[in-house]
Amino acid sequence: MPLAGKRGGPVPESRMPDIAARAGMIVERDIMVPARDGIGFATDVYRPPGAGPFPAILERTPYDKSAPSRSERTAPDIAIGAAPRSRAEVAAYFVTHGYAVLYQDCRGRYRSEGRFTKYLSEAEDGYDTLAWLVRQPFFTSTISLILFSVCFRTPKAVYARRSLLDRERSRTPFHSQRFSPSLG
Questions:
Q1: Which has the higher per-residue pLDDT, 143 or 3?
Q2: Which of 106-145 are b and which e, b meaning 16 or more Cβ less than 10 Å from the residue's Cβ?
Q3: Residue ranges of the domains in the chain?
Q4: Predicted model pTM
Q5: Is the previous residue joined to 49 through a cis bond, with omega within 30 degrees of 0?
Q6: Percentage of residues in the chain with pLDDT exceeding 90?
Q7: Please, what CATH class does the domain formed by 13-179 belong to?
Q8: How many angstroms separate the Cα of 175 from the Cα of each of 61, 156, 178?
Q9: Which residues, other chains included, contact 111 with Cβ-Cβ below 8 Å and sequence gap of 6+?
């Protein structure tokens, strides 16, 4: 059963409770994930009911975590000119398959605090987000990152920073975590 409303248009945020109920998911909006400098990153978490733990899918974006992404369309959707799916619809698909899904506004964008400077704080901010995530009781230690456009640079920077820290395993919260960036 598709979660979309009318074909050709995104589901309005007012329909989000309906999508959440149909997918049986728990939705937490605008959780402020702390950065090392004290600012908060606005994060929406969609997850299956229950304590978990669940593998997670994370997207950090400068493009508004609450807005539909133009990339959220299948080939048949594009063929008929359908609009992108809402983030809630995309999350519902993965939640029904046992994943937690997190969308986060980058520093200084939309509901996140701080000042946005393209690319300069992505490694530290992404690392701080992952450090927060591994401490969450619903998380299994397995994460996939959504990568496209400028969003590719966000996890790429985190992964590069994590690789440098691998030499000091005892000093990184990811030393026993499975971290697998995936190109989307």
A1: 143
A2: bbbbbbbbbeeeeeebbbbbbbbbbbbbbebebbbeebbb
A3: 13-179
A4: 0.72
A5: no
A6: 36
A7: alpha beta
A8: 25, 18, 8
A9: 30, 42, 65, 66, 105
In 3D, which of 100, 91, 93 has the Cα closest to residue 50? 100
C-alpha dihedral sign at 35, 38, 44, 50: positive
Which structure tokens are listed for 59? 């997207």
Torsion of CA 170, 171, 176, 178, to 10 degrees: -150
89 token code pair: 């619809």
What local confidence, expressed as pLDDT, does residue 17 receive?
61
Max CA distance (Å), the chain? 52
User: Each residue of 168-179: pLDDT tens digit?
Assistant: 344 444 444 444
Q: Check residue 79 and give its pLDDT.
A: 81
Q: Contact at 8 Å (CB) between 27 and 101?
A: no
Strands (E), 48-109: 54-61, 100-105
Integer-rounded Cα Rg, in Å, for the chain is 16
Residue 168: CB atoms within 10 A of its CB come to 9
What's the DSSP call for residue 36? T
Question: What are the residue ranges of helices labelled H in the chain?
Answer: 16-23, 75-79, 87-95, 122-134, 153-165
CA distance 1 to 19: 12
- Please name which of 9, 35, 4 lies closest in space to residue 106, comparing C-alpha atoms: 35
